[in-house]
Specification:
alpha+beta
Length: 293
């Protein structure tokens, strides 16, 4: 194929891709929040379990609900971080598991006619919602990635929670790492207001070097990786590639365990989870200042 034909094909693909999505550039909308589920206090007030799951395009929600209900029988989850969700999928999971939720889509996909974005679901209450738009657009369609941020109040803890989905390896590593810098910078600004911070989701660290650099960046900023022992968290090319793309980082807590639900069939990603205990005696004895976004 001659260079002209290649260029023409790229331009056509780009034009079609741009026509298939609408990017929500507004900093404060759309936002879907539900805070009417009764708060369920953890059996152990010092414990906390966080689960992150990229449910690919929210296509297998019934399967995901089934798997999460089974997991809840042995490991009750306090906070869910979900990616690639639409509002219907979020509402279905929240209803079945009796959870509150904060869902913020970043694009509307015209082909499948639904929103796609990140969500936080919890047995506690949610406040101070924020759509953190990450730097750098995808060259092919102008898509922007974002982070859904919310304050979760559960038990006697106020936790700043981030549900993350960064760009794929189709973007240069430098730009993808700058997206992580943006998340870390925002969390750093809020660290004076929050004793507890949890940042988790799909970081699209397809290659080992990507995962290593991501963990190092968070470590330098004072965040530990709770899921460092989980191994690969996704599969690609019929299982030939097994990347470690999903992570849970934290500050102000003590990690006591982590794992993944490797039997999951709801997505090409596995649900990953981490359990924590309070690392500070007399948790939340000091009331944090009201956050300023």
């Amino acid at each position: 194929m001659c260079a002209f034909k290649k260029l023409f094909l790229v331009l056509v693909v780009a034009q079609v891709s741009c026509a298939t999505i609408r990017v929500y550039e507004e900093p404060d909308k759309p936002v879907f929040i539900f805070n009417e589920a009764g708060s369920t206090l953890p059996t152990d007030p010092d414990s906390l379990t966080v689960l992150s799951f990229n449910i690919a395009k929210a296509e297998k929600i019934e399967q995901a609900v089934f798997e999460l209900q089974i997991f809840e029988r042995t490991t009750p989850v306090d906070i869910y971080l979900l990616q690639e969700m639409d509002e219907g999928g979020v509402q279905a999971i929240a209803k079945e598991l009796k959870l509150n939720y904060l869902y913020i889509p970043v694009v509307y996909n015209k082909l499948v006619q639904k929103n796609i974005g990140n969500a936080i679901l919890t047995k506690g209450s949610i406040s101070y919602q924020k759509k953190l738009i990450l730097p750098h657009k995808k060259w092919l369609n102008g898509r922007r990635r974002h982070v859904t941020v919310g304050e979760v109040n559960i038990g006697n803890k106020k936790i700043l929670v981030y549900s993350v989905h960064t760009e794929t390896s189709s973007m240069w590593r430098k730009k993808r790492m700058e997206q992580l810098d943006s998340i870390i910078a925002h969390a750093g600004q809020q660290s004076t207001n929050y004793r507890y911070i949890v940042i988790g989701g799909d970081f699209n660290t397809l290659f080992p070097k990507d995962a290593k650099e991501a963990i190092q960046k968070f470590s330098v900023a004072g965040f530990e990786c709770a899921t460092a022992v989980t191994g690969h968290t996704a599969t690609a090319l019929f299982g030939l590639i097994k990347p470690r793309e999903d992570h849970i980082f934290y500050k102000g807590l003590q990690a006591t365990g982590a794992g993944k639900i490797e039997t999951s069939k709801a997505s090409d990603h596995y649900p990953i989870y981490a359990t924590f205990r309070d690392s500070v005696e007399g948790s939340d004895a000091k009331v944090p200042a009201k956050p300023q976004y």
